Amino acid sequence: MAQVAVVTDSTASLPLEMYERYQISMVPYYIHYDGRAARDMVDVMPVPFGEYMRGLPDDAELPRTANPGPGDYLERFLALAEKAGEIVSFHMTSTGSGAFQAATIGRDMALQRLRGVRIEVVDTRNVSMCHGWITLQAARAAADGATLDDILALAQRMLPVTHMIQTADTLRYLYMGGRIGRASHLLSSVLNIKPLVSMEDGEITTLGVARSRMGAYKRIVSLVERAVEGRRNVRVALTHAVAHKEAEQLGQMVRQAVHPVEMLMCDLSPALSVHSGPGTVGLCYTLE
User: Who is most buried in 16, 106, 204, 243, counting CB within 10 A?
Assistant: First the structure.
């Protein structure tokens, strides 16, 4: 193991092989549905869960999600401290989840038991593979021998240049979750409106709407092109909820427009897809 152990949680939505390749320790969220509590990306996986979501009637109760608790992080930190003297833990925006706060409490509890171990907890102020990119690049740096301070500095550089844009196939799940009214839900279905959303300093922001899926993809590509402004080292993660074919279509358009040095295909974790719904497609990009 590298001298710095890297921890994240399941909503980073990293491809599963990346956890093993870069020795990233993943702490799962919880999903409560059908009378049981399942561990995100452990007991419940993206494709079967997405099909389950598709089958829910409009008046059904949505699954509920919960972030890991302080005890989950405490257990993981104590285990990693047996192998590494420094640990860094990355989490989705603290304005949208309690994971950062729970990990901070878990860190404080761990340090009461440990001596000579340093643990840092980082709020990425973002979600999905923006959170994932920061985690992945940190783990790559750790594998190359970077110190904890080096990794923290890398994360701080990435925070302002790592962005998410996505479009929902339908507003049905926002409606089912009580986030929009029935009239808005029905109107969007009739007009086939595709909302575009992003995140700014940890808060969800809207980037307008498109009248078709292709229109939404063109808008996403245009926004990325404008942000890139000729930079060479652009990394893109395509994200989707049981919409692999559609994500590939978006990926082809992005490749032609900005020629990223790395492109990943990523399933949104079930804990995220609860809130966006199956059919969601988007991307997370980071600039160097």
Answer: 106
Per-residue burial over 4-25, b if 16 or more Cβ lie within 10 Å, else e, is bbbbbbbbbbbeeebbeebbbb
Same-domain status, 245 and 199: yes
What gap in Å lies between CA 186 and CA 243, rounded to an integer?
22
255-260 long-range CB contacts below 8 Å, 24 or more apart? 257/221, 257/224, 257/225, 258/224, 258/225, 258/228, 258/234, 259/234, 260/234, 260/235, 260/236, 260/285
CA dist list (Å): 249 to 213, 240, 244: 11, 12, 9
Instruction: Answer yes or no: is 47 within a domain.
Output: no
| Tens-digit pLDDT profile for residues 102-161 | 999 999 999 999 999 999 999 999 999 999 999 999 999 999 999 999 999 999 999 999
Structural domain of residue 141, as residue ranges?
A: 4-35+68-159
Instruction: Give the SS3 label for residue 244.
Output: helix
Q: 208 — alpha (psi -120 to 50), left (phi > 0) or beta?
A: left
Let me know: does 210 contact 194? Beta carbons within 8 Å.
yes
| 95: CATH | 3.40.50.10170
Does residue 56 lie in a domain region?
no
Angle subtended at Cα 218 by Cα 189 and Cα 257, rounded to the nearest 5 degrees: 160
Cβ atoms of residues 86 and 146 within 8 Å: no
Instruction: State the total domains in the chain.
Output: 2
Same domain, 152 and 133: yes
Tokens for 57?
């009637």
Quick check: is 46 in a domain? no
Q: Which helix (H) or strand (E) holds 181?
A: none
> Tokens 């992003």 sit at which residue?
198
For residue 197, is pLDDT > 90?
no
Q: Could you give the count of Cα atoms lying within 13 Å of 241 in the half-sphere of its Cβ?
A: 27
pTM for this model (two decimals): 0.93
